[in-house]
Design brief:
Layout: E1 2-7, H1 11-22, E2 27-33, H2 36-46, E3 50-54, E4 56-57, E5 60-61, H3 62-72, E6 77-82, H4 87-95, E7 100-103, H5 108-119, H6 127-139, H7 153-163, H8 168-175, H9 179-192, H10 198-212
Parallel strand pairs: 1-2, 1-3, 3-6, 6-7
Antiparallel strand pairs: 4-5
Length: 216
């Protein structure tokens, strides 16, 4: 059985999702939440296979919740669910490690398939949004100048891993450092590139990588 945690601040949405999943023979709803705080608490307590998570929550961003869940427990997959096709939220969700980003108007069968795909470790995007994400990666975001020369070899390696959507914990395992040290590296990278978010750093790397090839 695929254990699913539902997080949305609208009762009617959660009730609809719960009713849908109850009809699926291979899924069970192990918990629900309506806030970012509840999502983090329940994800840690229940350790679900998949979290279906609203992008916008009353006490915080679903994107940040996704990043925190993926950092604490990489085996838990997160599907972002939203009412609006927001390019910034989509891009940020992918950089936070979300397995998919779906509109609430998605058909029931497609949502169930998405949960199954995520539980198997696969990734997916709503087809109508895919092209915009790739375009964003190609063109980049933010106004940082070309300052790659300021980054050390280790910082360039960590920047490339950020661009792959890795969490701090996953990066730490890859480069054999502590989570705290990686967090410090990420802060330094953002400061050197005059950026404020991981998504901007990922876009910067994609732009620089396309122009100059992979960092040393």
């Amino acid at each position: 059985m695929i254990a699913v945690l539902l997080v949305d601040d609208h009762d009617v949405v959660r009730e609809g999702l719960r009713a849908l999943l109850l009809r699926a023979p291979d899924m069970e709803v192990v918990g629900e939440g309506s806030t970012a705080a509840a999502a983090l608490t329940e994800a840690q307590r229940l350790q679900p296979d998949v979290v279906v998570l609203d992008v916008r929550l009353p006490d915080g961003s679903g994107v940040e919740v996704c990043r925190e869940i993926r950092s604490e427990r990489p085996d838990t997959r997160v599907l972002m669910l939203t009412s609006y096709a927001d390019d910034e939220a989509l891009f940020s969700s992918i950089m936070a490690g979300a397995a998919g980003y779906l509109l609430k108007e998605t058909r029931a069968a497609a949502l169930l398939d998405a949960i199954r795909t995520a539980a198997r470790g696969g990734s997916l995007l709503d087809p109508s949004m895919t092209q915009r994400v790739f375009e964003r990666l190609r063109t980049g975001s933010g106004g940082a100048a070309d300052q790659a020369a300021q980054l050390s070899e280790q910082e360039q390696r960590i920047l490339a891993l950020i661009a792959e959507g890795r969490t701090n914990r996953e990066i730490a395992a890859e480069v054999f450092l502590s989570d705290k040290t990686v967090k410090h590296y990420v802060s330094n990278i953002l400061a050197k590139l005059q950026l404020s978010r991981r998504s901007e750093a990922a876009a910067y790397w994609a732009r620089h990588h396309e122009r100059a090839g992979p960092p040393a």
